[in-house]
Design goal:
Helix content: over 70%
Order of helices and strands: HHHEEH
Strand content: 5-15%
Radius of gyration: 23 Å
Low-confidence stretches: none
Shape: elongated
Mean pLDDT: 83
Structural class: mainly alpha
Distance between the termini: 69 Å
Length: 167
């Protein structure tokens, strides 16, 4: 394949990987906003202690929240796998170009390995390469927070129903 063909394939895969990544974060944000709005509705119903129908309505809203959290969990898992697939294709395709390390260096950086950033450190009137490394708390906290949000919301909805009916 000629260079132009490789560049077109690289551009198409890069665009698809970016779209999948954007979809992943959009889904996360959409479910987070929907869960918070549903939580506000349940909190508003908690103000109505004397209504007998409020308990049933809170239970129904908590059931909807639980189903939404489980859907959030499954869609996020699927989208994470799609993003990993497309970025993996992108990194493997970079091997066809001489010395190109755009997505490979980003992948190494996310794994916590040292990455050399060319001409990024100003010393003695000249630009010099700088070595960066992402420490483990920066990698682990964001990944764990995103992974456990749907689980925490699911547990919160279950606790909401249990507290409402057992108390």
């Amino acid at each position: 394949m000629e260079l132009e063909g490789w560049l077109e394939v690289y551009q198409a895969i890069s665009l698809t990987a970016g779209t999948k990544e954007r979809g992943y974060w959009t889904t996360l944000l959409g479910f987070l906003i929907a869960s918070c709005l549903l939580f506000l509705a349940v909190a508003f119903l908690n103000l109505a202690h004397d209504l007998a129908a409020a308990r049933i309505l809170r239970t129904v809203l908590a059931g909807i929240g639980l189903c939404m959290s489980l859907g959030w969990w499954s869609s996020q898992w699927r989208l994470e796998r799609e993003v990993a697939h497309w970025t993996g294709l992108l990194r493997s395709l970079e091997g066809e170009f001489a010395g190109a390390e755009f997505h490979r260096s980003a992948y190494k950086f996310l794994l916590g390995k040292e990455v050399c950033i060319p001409a990024s450190d100003w010393q003695c009137g000249e630009w010099h390469p700088k070595v960066l490394r992402l420490p483990w708390p920066g990698r682990a906290t964001s990944r764990l927070a995103v992974a456990f949000l749907p689980i925490l919301f699911s547990l919160g909805w279950i606790a909401s129903v249990l507290i409402d009916w057992l108390a």
